[in-house]
């Protein structure tokens, strides 16, 4: 049977929507807990950080310096491991397997006890995200992990401990993405295709951020939100937020 390109597009939307519905329903408790933990950290004058390597870094970037997002979320970047900004692109994947790199990054960062770190890793099996979580908790940070728990039962950990990201977090949010991150197959295409992790992970994180903003408002605390610079008054609004929270915003320095 011939399947048109437009039908495949529709099938992908169906798959992505199905995953989003699963995450909404099955991770509701975790999303609420994660949002509350972020609100707790903001209220206690802690700082917020997000980390992801490879394509997982795109989800981390989605919640940093974002219109409608919390101004206090800072990107914890690892040179060479953020997206596909290095040549060859495979170097980024190789860096995820380097033991000890996470500790060096954390020790060189402003992160300290009482802060919170969101770690995004689809597989959660590589040394970098595992050690990032381990080292962060050892330094006294709270850790929220966003990962596909399925990888822990269907793949082998690449960390010497044999553990995964999910084993070193205060809260784990399961993206429900299948191992391999490809939603579609076709007899005439030799490999699975159409990954949905970017869509689902970004939506999951925005749900957490929305929950955090609401939790702060419930306590009578104005959430430190950014506005779009493309609406009238947006830059002035953001300048006020940047000034008020200057000691907890690091991407402007």
TrEMBL record:
Residues 38-222 form the SIS domain. PANTHER family: PHOSPHOHEPTOSE ISOMERASE, SEDOHEPTULOSE 7-PHOSPHATE ISOMERASE / DNAA INITIATOR-ASSOCIATING FACTOR FOR REPLICATION INITIATION. Gene3D superfamilies: Glucose-6-phosphate isomerase like protein, domain 1. Belongs to the UPF0309 family. Transmembrane segments: none annotated. HAMAP family: UPF0309 (MF_01240). This is UPF0309 protein GCM10010307_62400. NCBIfam families: PRK02947.1. Pfam families: SIS_2.
């Amino acid at each position: 049977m011939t399947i048109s390109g437009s039908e495949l597009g529709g099938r992908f939307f169906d798959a992505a929507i199905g995953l989003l519905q699963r995450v909404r329903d099955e991770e509701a408790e975790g999303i609420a807990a994660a949002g509350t933990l972020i609100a707790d950290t903001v209220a206690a004058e802690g700082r917020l950080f997000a980390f992801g390597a490879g394509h997982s870094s795109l989800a981390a970037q989605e919640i940093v310096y974002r219109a409608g997002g919390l101004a206090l979320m800072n990107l914890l970047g690892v040179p060479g491991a953020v997206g596909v900004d290095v040549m060859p692109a495979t170097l980024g994947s190789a860096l995820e397997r380097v033991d000890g790199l996470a500790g060096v990054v954390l020790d060189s960062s402003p992160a300290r006890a009482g802060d919170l770190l969101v770690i995004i890793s689809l597989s959660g099996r590589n040394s970098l995200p595992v050690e990032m979580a381990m080292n962060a908790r050892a330094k006294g940070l709270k850790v929220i992990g966003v990962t596909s728990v399925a990888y822990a039962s269907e793949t082998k950990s690449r960390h010497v401990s044999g553990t995964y990201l999910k084993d070193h977090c205060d809260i784990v949010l399961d993206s429900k993405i299948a191992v391999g991150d490809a939603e579609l197959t076709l007899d005439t295409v030799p490999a699975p295709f159409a990954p949905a992790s970017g869509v689902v992970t970004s939506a999951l994180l925005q749900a957490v951020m929305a929950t955090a903003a609401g939790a702060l408002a419930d306590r009578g605390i104005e959430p430190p939100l950014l506005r779009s610079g493309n609406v009238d008054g947006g830059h002035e609004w953001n300048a006020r937020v940047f000034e008020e929270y200057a000691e907890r915003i690091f991407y402007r320095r």
